[in-house]
Amino acid sequence: PVTEHTLFIVISELIMALIRRRLLPILSLLLAVTFLAGVATAKKTGQLTVFWGRNKNEGTLRETCDTGLYNIVIISFYSVFGHGRYWGDLSGHDLRPIGADNKHCQSKHISVFLSIGGAGNDYSLPSSQSAADVADNIWNAHMDGRRPGVFRPFGDAAVDGIDFFIDNGSPDH
């Protein structure tokens, strides 16, 4: 059977042969065409996922969905949690229209997820209870839970799912 290691060796030897024969420019062109064909196909089918919320210049969530390029948009990041603190960092995006934008995206059959974690050290789950509290907050603040007294930053809009982008912290909880 062909293993990843075998495939790596074959590709490495092919690249070295191309370099020796000065065919690397042809390989580069072939790879570029393959990449562009993949992007063109993805644009045509709308089967791309994008992280949204990390750059204020990227436009609104609604504008992102209106491009027709994506079938999943991941709002990033819910990055402050644990120890009773809960907040997201959307790099200067105004939170007020996000709920309506979320519903707009969903009306176009685009799934909207919320990514928790990301870079930084403002989150931790020091105990199983802390993990349960964060899960409870995510459910009631961003999904279909409606516990009274829980702040819902996107109003009555609910995200379709959660993306766990945990870069830091202990894997214990």
Morphology: extended
CA radius of gyration: 21 Å
Please give the number of β-strands: 6
**CATH class category name of the largest domain:** Alpha Beta
The N- and C-terminal alpha carbons lie at a distance of: 38 Å
Spatial order of strands in the largest sheet: 1-2-5-6
Helix content: 40-55%
Please count the helical segments.
Answer: 5
Going by CATH, the homologous superfamily of the largest domain would be Glycosidases
Low-confidence regions: none
Structural class: alpha/beta
Output mean pLDDT. Answer: 78
Task: Determine the strand fraction and express it as a percent band.
Answer: 15-25%
CATH topology of the largest domain: TIM Barrel
Q: Which CATH architecture of the largest domain is right?
A: Alpha-Beta Barrel
GO molecular function, one term: enzyme inhibitor activity
Domain GH18: 46-173
Keywords: Membrane, Transmembrane, Transmembrane helix
GO biological process, one term: defense response to fungus
Q: Helices, strands, pairings?
A:
Blueprint: H1 4-20, H2 24-45, E1 48-52, H3 61-66, E2 70-78, E3 80-82, E4 85-87, H4 98-107, E5 111-118, H5 128-142, E6 161-166
Parallel strand pairs: 1-2, 2-5, 5-6
Antiparallel strand pairs: 3-4
What does this structure look like?
The protein is of the alpha/beta class and about 170 residues long. The protein has two domains: about 5-45; about 50-165, TIM Barrel (Alpha-Beta Barrel), CATH 3.20.20. Helix content is about 40%, strand content about 20%. It is built from five helices and six strands. The protein has helices at about 5-20, 25-45, 60-65, 100-105, 130-140; strands at about 50, 70-80, 80, 85, 110-120, 160-165. The strands form two sheets. The protein has a four-stranded parallel sheet. The radius of gyration is 21 Å and the shape is extended. The model has no long low-confidence stretch (mean pLDDT about 80).
